[in-house]
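All the exercises in this workshop are built on plain-text protein records. There is nothing in a record beyond a sequence line and a structure line. A learned vocabulary of local backbone shapes supplies the integers on the structure line. The question running through the whole workshop is how a given chain folds. Here is such a record, shown just as it appears in the course material:

***
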Amino acid sequence: MRSTVLTQIKRRRLQLGLKGTDMPLRVGLNRQQYGKIEKDGNPSLATLDKIAEGLDATLMLIPKELARQVEQLLEAGPAKAQQNYAMGRSPSSSPGAGVKETIEDPWQDLGDD
């Protein structure tokens, strides 16, 4: 799991055209701290939140049954994801394949404890 998050951090940084040396100033860490995190670190949730903010991203828990769809949206890139969303298609639908069903909130039954 941790390596997946670290891979996503690096991928997002590269998508934004940022160098590893650009990140410490954007996230409020020193160079050594940030380099260690991206390489193989174990950042705290607060640090991950700072990094996400610096990458113009959001931390989010995704139910496992929806993870593949989210991955496909991310792989497709922003333009393709917006196009599919606007047309009501799931990420794996081909043009003319029909409209996807609305997914109910998967967290609604958990309630507030």
